[in-house]
Design a protein that fits this description.
Strand order of the largest sheet: 3-4-8-12-11-18-19-15-14-13
Number of strands: 19
Helix content: 25-40%
Order of helices and strands: HEEEEEEEEHEEEEHHEEEEEHEEHH
Radius of gyration: 28 Å
């Protein structure tokens, strides 16, 4: 029965149908409009290259590099219970871009060190190479600050390179018979770091300058991080031994934090924090060797005339090792100008000496923990004389250093650590150092 048109208590079937149809059309129109706005937003804020965004709440710069999703993967999943050891892999893997005979699969060589190590541009970079640095969004160039004060974004340009450490797929720096592999790696790091500083980064001028303002300062590399990821748990996507170098026109938060802490200690105590740690750790260690029992409480793993390796007093995890210079200021080794805060200022002799300590530490970890996954990072001061670094002589309060962090699975960052900023470590640093000292590392005299 059709309702009477004079019945006001209930709408007619036709009225209900028409009202519903109109509602559907309006809903579709709103969805279409929202989709159009979303598409426009994506066109505006996405680009074919990488970008750096600043999180104002944490002060952290984040690199968005969608192209890295396509990089090849050899390592097992970090969640896999199967552990892959380089010694169990073949010396050559067909299809591996880093193995001997597959050089055509990588970009042209930028640097060769010795007869086994080469540096090439990363085919899947986190930062775009300089020739693609002019990124335009909607016809306008990116700037450090757009019209929204909380949306700070610049093109992520600079250098991202891969150090192919060996032509052999299963050659591990920690299992090398001598320090030669470690020395070549440090040499490659230094040489490419110096080369990056000579290039100007073609970033657009900041919001404080007009496009045609000749007084706008050029943007250049301000910081370089050198690192090695070994194993899936450490973030490596390829088994083949390799390291990486990334140089950026901004100083990362971690580098700023380390310098700020060291400067704060210097202002309060009028002494270099790293110098203080080196002296006190060596006194404790040598006191134990003299019969005072200090060696049992020492955190020293190994040392040389100009370097010391220690498990940090408040180590964030098991068996973490920090290697840093014992020399200070702006000169050492027969008066040769060396900046103790700047890794790239190291002489060949210093790199060779550091390589011996580095190789010792890596081989101790290799033997004690059965080839653990690990991250190795060389932390150096920002480029002297550029940006805010022009206002500081960092050698007075900071020293470059190497941090080796074994990734042992359980005990990684969880809710408590992420929420509080505290690290939880079930290993006492003194015990870890004693275990590492007890391991006989591979030496130059081993066969």
């Amino acid at each position: 029965r059709l309702d009477s048109p004079h019945d006001t208590k209930a709408p007619s079937i036709m009225t209900t149908f028409v009202t519903g149809a109109v509602g559907v059309l309006r809903h579709r129109a709103r969805n279409h409009l929202n989709a159009s706005l979303l598409a426009a937003h994506r066109r505006l804020f996405s680009s074919p290259g990488s970008v750096l965004r600043l999180d104002e709440m944490t002060g952290t710069w984040v690199v968005y590099a969608s192209g890295r999703q396509d990089r090849p993967k050899q390592t097992a999943s970090s969640s896999s219970s199967l552990k892959r050891r380089l010694a169990d892999l073949p010396s050559h893997l067909e299809g591996c871009p880093f193995c001997a005979g597959n050089e055509h699969m990588t970009p042209d060589v930028l640097l060769s060190v010795g007869d086994r190590m080469r540096v090439v541009p990363n085919k899947f970079p986190a930062v775009d190479p300089l020739e693609t640095s002019h990124i335009r969004l909607g016809g306008e160039r990116c700037s450090f600050a757009d019209k929204h004060p909380l949306n700070n974004e610049i093109p992520a340009v600079g250098f991202h390179e891969v150090v192919i450490e060996s032509p052999y797929h299963n050659h591990h720096v920690a299992a090398a018979p001598d320090r030669g592999h470690a020395r070549d790696l440090l040499t490659a790091f230094r040489e490419r770091g110096l080369a990056h500083r000579l290039a100007e980064v073609a970033l657009p001028p900041s919001a404080d300058y007009a496009d045609d303002d000749v007084s706008a300062p050029p943007r250049r590399i301000e910081h370089t991080v050198f690192f090695k990821n070994h194993g899936a748990t450490a973030g490596a996507s390829l088994d083949h031994p390799h390291s990486q170098i990334v140089s950026t026109p901004v100083v990362p938060v971690e580098a700023q934090r380390l310098q700020s802490l060291a400067l704060g200690y210097f202002r309060k105590n009028r002494v270099n924090l790293y110098e203080k740690v080196a002296v006190e750790e060596m006194v404790l260690f040598e006191g134990g060797l003299g019969g005072g029992g200090g060696a049992n409480a020492s955190r020293v793993v190994d040392f040389s005339e100009n370097f010391v390796a220690v498990v940090p007093y408040a180590s964030p995890g098991p068996y973490v090792i920090t290697i840093f210079p014992r020399y200070g200021g702006d000169g050492t080794l027969d008066g040769t100008a060396v900046d103790c805060s700047d890794f790239t200022s190291c002489t060949d002799d210093l790199l060779d000496e550091c390589a011996a300590v580095l190789h010792s530490c890596l081989s101790r970890l290799h033997v004690l923990l059965d080839e653990p996954c690990f991250n190795l990072v060389v932390q150096t001061a920002p480029v002297p004389g550029r940006g805010v670094q022009a206002a500081a002589r960092s050698s007075a309060f900071f020293r470059w250093h190497i941090r080796i962090t074994p990734r042992l699975g359980a005990g990684a960052m969880a809710g408590f650590e992420l929420g509080s900023g505290f690290f939880s470590n079930s290993h006492m640093p003194e015990d870890d150092a004693a275990e590492l000292r007890a391991v006989r590392p591979f030496t130059d005299t081993d066969g």
